[in-house]
């Protein structure tokens, strides 16, 4: 399929890991793609299901890889979670199992931390996971707190390592309470709607670029956007036969998008 209509899009929502970089290695063609976005004055967001890092920290990571963009070009599942909860329960309280990116996003959205009777128990990626935190979360949910996950990913990649994702970390709490978590990250179309609102464009004017069929591509389809699967991440071309839905474009990497 020709890329002319894709290149005419006014906005691009791009996943990060597997699209822009692998761990601490910049992927081929990314410099060219970002230069093209800037030169053509495209609207763009780098969007991640991870809730660990703030936009400033993500900007600093790309700076180290030689890509320079403002923090306003980043959107995370932590920000999507905070935005949703602030709409549901303004100035509410939360018990958080997660890292600084999630905690700061919730603070900035007007939430207080509460280990006694919070409105929500919120779980994101973390390396400070413990039995004590699970026990606390289980009893708070059983007492009436709503269970929220920043994203449903079962695994995450850290360079060559695979680590448990939020979906895996929240599963013991779901099993012990009989309550299902509500997840805000991809493929929840709410995250896409927030992103489009930030970009100030319609779904018809935007395309989503990602490397995962079950999050990036299905999120775009649910949101009515054109979808671009890049084979620079976790999905291989032969994997496409395993899915009932298909991306509109399949490219080796984002370096193919510019003219």
Protein described:
The radius of gyration is 18 Å and the shape is globular. The model has no long low-confidence stretch (mean pLDDT 95). With 259 residues, it is of the alpha/beta class. The protein has helices at 4-7, 30-39, 55-64, 77-88, 100-108, 131-142, 166-177, 189-199, 213-223; strands at 11-14, 21-22, 25-26, 43-48, 74-76, 93-97, 112-113, 120-123, 146-149, 155-158, 161-164, 182-183, 206-210, 226-230, 249-251. The strands form four sheets. It has a six-stranded parallel beta sheet with strand order 5-4-1-13-14-15. A five-stranded parallel beta sheet has the order 7-6-8-9-12, sandwiched between helices.
């Amino acid at each position: 399929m020709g890329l002319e209509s894709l290149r005419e899009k006014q906005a691009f929502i791009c996943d990060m890991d597997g699209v822009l970089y692998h761990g601490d290695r910049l992927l081929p063609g990314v410099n060219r793609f970002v230069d093209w976005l800037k030169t053509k004055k495209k609207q763009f967001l780098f969007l991640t299901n991870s809730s660990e890092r703030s936009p400033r920290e993500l900007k600093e990571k790309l700076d180290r890889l030689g890509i320079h963009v403002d923090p306003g070009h980043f959107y995370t599942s932590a920000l999507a979670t905070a935005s949703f909860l602030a709409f549901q329960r303004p100035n509410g309280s939360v018990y958080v199992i997660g890292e600084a990116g999630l905690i700061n996003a919730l603070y900035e959205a007007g939430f207080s931390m509460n280990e006694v009777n919070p409105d929500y128990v919120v779980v994101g990626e973390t390396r400070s996971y413990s039995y004590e935190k699970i026990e606390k979360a289980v009893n708070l949910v059983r007492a009436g707190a709503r269970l929220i996950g920043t994203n449903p990913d079962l695994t995450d990649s850290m360079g060559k390592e695979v680590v448990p994702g939020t979906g895996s970390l929240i599963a013991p709490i779901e099993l012990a309470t009989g309550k299902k978590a509500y997840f805000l990250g991809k493929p929840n179309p709410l995250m896409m709607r927030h992103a489009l609102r930030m970009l100030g464009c319609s779904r018809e004017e935007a395309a989503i670029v990602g490397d995962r069929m079950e999050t990036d591509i299905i999120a775009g389809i649910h949101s009515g956007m054109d979808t671009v699967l890049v084979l620079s991440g976790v999905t291989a071309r032969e994997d496409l036969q395993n899915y009932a839905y298909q991306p509109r474009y399949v490219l080796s990497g984002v370096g193919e998008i510019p003219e």
